[in-house]
Specification:
Elements (H helix, E strand, L loop, with lengths): L2 E5 L3 H13 L3 E5 L2 H10 L4 E5 L7 H11 L4 E5 L3 H9 L5 E4 L4 H25 L2 E4 L2 E4 L4 E4 L2 E3 L3 H12 L5 E2 H8 L9 H14 L9 E4 L3 E4 L2
Parallel strand pairs: 1-2, 1-3, 3-4, 4-5
Antiparallel strand pairs: 6-7, 7-8, 8-9, 10-12, 11-12
The structure holds calcium ion.
């Protein structure tokens, strides 16, 4: 169920918006000041925000600007003044849409649905384009060159990343240190096969959690290394 946050100081309007959105199957939260609305928007995972411009304390322009620094969820701005629309554009706040009061609640529901489906399409498309390898607790995002161990991101140097990815893409295959060195390092690069050993050690520290019995990269004595599937 999509979660929506309404930031609106006029309680009657906020209640009306909430009722209509809930009738359409959305989960709705409300805040009545800019400051509290911003705190809530940053602290919780909402799918869309309906943001009034004229608010006590921090106004909607500032709330929108600060939300945009952290989140890219759709923001629909609401204003009683038509002039504000130009201001929204001029400030480049990244609001996805704006509505001028008074508007019909069903118009709001229609816009919310349109923005959510467009946003979900974008998010899904992005996920598809990222090339991922997932083996047990390890997730390697080849597109973003990021590595997650049990959901937690770990920092890898370029060569550590290349080596881990190469081994994970060829699981259950034993590679000698010479083969790995040729595969990951340039032919004319300075270094020798001891470099491979050093990098394997560093990768293990990050993915094996300091365990003395490696779960992922096995040493095959006298031969080389293998990524266990
Ligand atoms: Ca207001």
């Amino acid at each position: 169920m999509s979660k929506i946050l309404i930031i609106e100081d006029e309680v009657a309007i906020a209640d009306l918006e909430k009722d209509y959105l809930e009738l359409s199957g959305f989960e709705v939260a409300m805040e009545h000041t800019g400051d509290r609305g911003l705190d809530r928007a940053l602290a919780e995972d909402f799918d869309l925000i309906v943001l009034d411009l004229m608010l006590p304390g921090m106004d909607g322009f500032e709330v929108c600007r600060q939300i945009r620094e952290k989140k890219d969820i759709p923001v629909i701005m609401v204003s009683a003044k038509k002039d504000d629309i130009d201001k929204i554009h001029g400030l480049g706040l990244g609001a996805d849409d704006y509505m001028t009061k008074p508007f019909s609640p069903s118009e709001l529901v229609a816009r919310v649905k349109a923005h959510l489906s467009r946003y979900n399409r974008l998010v899904n498309t992005n996920q598809k384009t990222n090339d991922m390898i997932e083996i047990r607790g390890i997730r390697i995002d080849k597109t973003a060159r990021r590595v997650y161990i049990d959901g937690e991101e770990k920092n890898f140097t370029t060569k550590e990343f290349d080596l881990l990815t190469f081994l994970a893409e060829n699981p259950n295959h034993v590679f000698t240190k010479e083969e790995l060195f040729r595969e990951i390092w340039d032919m004319d690069s300075v270094g020798d096969i001891a470099t491979v050993t050093v990098h394997i050690k560093k990768i293990r520290e990050k993915i094996e959690g300091g365990s003395s019995k490696p779960q992922y990269i096995e040493t095959i004595w006298g031969v080389g290394y293998r990524f266990k599937l």
